[in-house]
Amino acid sequence: SDKRRRGEGDRRGQMPPLDVEAACATLVAAQAAGQLSSAHVRDFLVECGVPAALDALRGAEEGSARELVILRGLDKLVSTDAGASVLREDTASAGALLQGARVVLAAGGGAGGARESLRRLALKAVRAHFTRNSAQFREADAEGLPAAVCALIEGSDTEEAENCEAALVAMATAGEGELLADLLGDSSPLVALAMGGAAGSTARVRALSAAVACGEVSARGGEALRSSSALGVIKASVGACGDLLERLNGVELLARIADGAAAEACGADVAEALLPLIEGSAGAEAGDMVLSPIVATAACRAARAAPPAAGERLVRAVVALAHGAAEGGDPSLEASARDALSHAPVELVFACEDAAKELCSAALGVLARRPLEEPRLAAAHALATLAGATDSAAAAEAEVLSDATETALKAAFEGAVGELPTPGVGPALWWLINQAPAGGDGAAQRAGAYRLVRALARRQWGARACFSSSQLLEALGSRAHDASGAAAAERVHAADALRHAGAAAGATDEALIALGPTGGRIERPVAIPEVATATR
Question: What digits encode the pLDDT tens for the residues 456-511?
């Protein structure tokens, strides 16, 4: 085996030619059986070796069964845990794979370049190498790769562009971020591609997306992105650019930055770019139904990382957009703006008294009684999310609001329902459940009401308000409205949350019987020692 790996046996005629195809087929079969282990990979490297496999792959006819088997075998080498564990130790084989990938990528695509199947494998190998060796980064490993990958982005299809981006991100995460300057610096091929492409061109869009992805890998990546001209290109693209697709792409990239690890470094820049857009939309007589909803969501997401004053302006502009849409009779835009608020910091939303009350009114109060299902549905789910009805109990418990925000939230709820003919949070929730239309929209509206109950059960006053309505308790414990599906699951979760709140207050099982049998999921709201019991 040692002689075969060195290639000595073939030269002397003492051993039969290597059956690379059979060795690759063994790896494929082991993976298909769920039995691929490090031993299989070691045997492959001893019996065949990376150089021989790459030579056989280059010599195989494109599209042939032989090419397919070798490709799949090498794919198991670069994309499985077994392959990673062996290549982490066998640096010679890992180096041969990376060098083979470098040669393929340097050849590029198109006429005269490497064929697509080889490029796909090469990009996977690059990604796997830098992911596998992120802690043992060697600068020589990246030689020539950023430029080769960036050159491939320009003329590739969607799948290959995604593979290129993944390879660049893997390089960005290597070591302590030593390659970030090579990837995001003004002299980098990626930034050159972003700045040199025509507005709205595919190459420019892909290059900017890859730049943002590299900046998202860490706080250091965020700093590199903030200093990069690529961020300036993104900010400029959402301004007076006449290309709608270019503006949409820029807004979405800014929202990605605001949500990722680069948010702290780039938050002020993102807010600066989005403020003119969202404030312009809010002040327009008629909102842009293509751009305004996307800008509203991006603005609310950006408010989390923006400086306090800028964050407040972003949220207030979205609230003004929703108000203007409601006044102008545009329910779709109103719903989009209400929904966008679910992404905003809850402290900023409820710091604005008018904004908080209007959102509660649209979900439960007078505005909810309009014959407009879309805004009511969006407002209910946005309010539930802001009030803490998350899918993760751990995340809900981690979201501890300040006393001022809790006070404002309570005042907004009570102020909105106080204007109804039958005041009270409990009756308002019952109305939402009972008056929901038939079909999917009705089920979604009831799910929003159930989520509001979950959020209210986390608070003494909220649980007390829910327990005060016997009709609401009966709806939560009955299968009459929702016997199956997502809405039914939310109904059971809401009943469990109220049951937990009542039990924490000392209510007996008999007193909680109206809520029906437990759903098996235990909500963990804040302990409520003084909440009214179900008997009230």
Answer: 988 888 988 888 888 898 888 888 888 888 888 899 888 888 888 888 777 666 66
Nearest alpha-carbon partner for 382 in 400, 404, 365, 360: 360
Q: For residue 298, count other CB atoms closer than 10 A to its CB.
A: 30
Q: Which of 167, 144, 169, 163 is nearest to 221 (CA)?
A: 169
DSSP designation for 142:
G
Question: Could you tell me if 305 and 270 are in contact, meaning their C-beta atoms sit under 8 angstroms apart?
Answer: yes
- Measured in degrees and rounded to the nearest 5, phi and psi for residue 102 equal -65, -40
Contact present, 456 and 466 (Cβ < 8 Å): yes
Strands (E), 351-437: none
214 near 183, Cβ under 8 Å? yes
DSSP state, residue 17? P
**Looking at residues 429-448, what average pLDDT do you find?**
88
Question: pLDDT per residue over 138-171, tens digit each?
Answer: 878 888 898 899 888 877 788 888 999 999 999 9
Which single residue is written with the structure tokens 């892909």? Answer: 206
Return the structure tokens found at 517.
């049998």
For residue 355, give Cα distances in angstroms to 264, 338, 341, 362, 402: 26, 10, 10, 11, 18
Global confidence as pTM: 0.78
Q: How far apart are CA 223 and CA 495, in angstroms?
A: 46
Estimate the share of the chain in helix, then strand, then coil, as percent rounded to the nearest 5.
Answer: 70, 0, 30
Scan for tokens 């993102």, then name that residue: 270
Query: Residues in the chain, how many?
Result: 536
Q: Assign 3-class secondary structure to 73-86.
A: HHHHHHHCHHHHHH
Alpha carbon distance 268, 383 (integer Å): 27
Q: No. of H helices and E strands in the chain?
A: 31, 0
User: Tokens representing 268?
Assistant: 């002020």
Separation in Å, CA 315 to CA 160, 299, 491: 38, 7, 31
Half-sphere exposure of 346 (CA within 13 A, CB side): 22
Q: Tell me how far apart the alpha carbons of residues 445 and 498 are, in angstroms, rounded to a whole number.
A: 19
The Cα 431–Cα 376 span in angstroms is: 12
DSSP string, 296-341: HHHHHHHHTTS-HHHHHHHHHHHHHHHHHHHHTT-HHHHHHHHHHG
Instruction: Give yes or no for a contact between 488 and 480, defined as CB atoms under 8 angstroms apart.
Output: no
